[in-house]
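Entry for the shared binder. Reason: the reviewer on the internal report wants the predicted structure included alongside the sequence.
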Amino acid sequence: MEPQVVTVLIVDDSPIQQKLFAHLCKTDPALRVIGVVGDGAEALAFVLKQRPDVILMDIMMPVMNGFEATRRIMETVPIPIVICSGSTLPGEVDKTFLALEAGAVAFINKPVGPGHPRFQAEVVNMVKTLKAMAEIKLTMRTPRKPATRSAESLPVTRPWPRRPWLVAIGASTGGPVVLQTILKNLPKDFSLPLLIVQHISEGFMQGLVDWLGSTTGFPVHIAASGMKIIPGQAYLAPDDFHMGMNGDGTIQLSRDPQENGLRPAVSYLFRSVTAVCGSSAVGVLLTGMGNDGAEDLKRMKDRGALTIAQDKESSVIHGMPGEAIRMGGASHVLSPEAISSLLASLVQQP
């Protein structure tokens, strides 16, 4: 049985990048390029006539940039959009996250040139991402207001019998927008620290931290080794380092081998937090491909910790939380808004 062919639209203003992307797509027989256009306006016109399974979209383009094109496409003809961005270009990182807010499902780095040590790995990631995102079923989006942090939390649901010390969160594909939703809906006096592992392409972490902080009002930092964990603040694992915590309440970073093919790994974070906090921790596993963190979320639950998995309906990819649910590792299965509500209820207890 022949594999199902995924049709791709390439949107980039550089003829060199257009040819490179088209060539890389041809390396996998499951991908077929049906269109190549040079800006967002051309992309919008294309999809109104012919619908690809997935779009590979640049950000910085003339006439209409990738952010605006994503917004327009998602409000008219919803199609999975993968942002392919050069993370070091001025202003491009910010627009990448705006494109995620507008409905893009994932983003990747523009592949480096052939001969570079990272070239093959980035090509594999691009092909895998395009095929996986093409499977996502989307609905038409209405214009979204900019995210701001809520003055009040959502109504309290499902109380937990004791107040925990710390929240550990793991996320992958689709995670940035979910993290934004969770943080913006926490009350302003939320007093638990959050340790977060977000799988993200190298070079985007500072942009993610800046975007989350500016759009939610929640204090967000890139974690550093030995940094004191402060209540009411969030810490994201830096590129290529596992993150955990020490018994004295400080950040622990490690270059230990990859877990589940990843560094940082959610599994490492959950295991470290369990060792220090035991039942006084909260584990949250959000949208993402694969199974990173699922087994260790189950271990957290077995130790008496509160564990939460994102529900299928709100997940871009339900791999990680779905696996945790299948293993019986989730005390609760919730939407992002309900996760905020439950976390808020924890700090209101004596």
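Summary line for the report: Residues 166-347 form a domain with the Rossmann fold fold (CATH 3.40.50.180).
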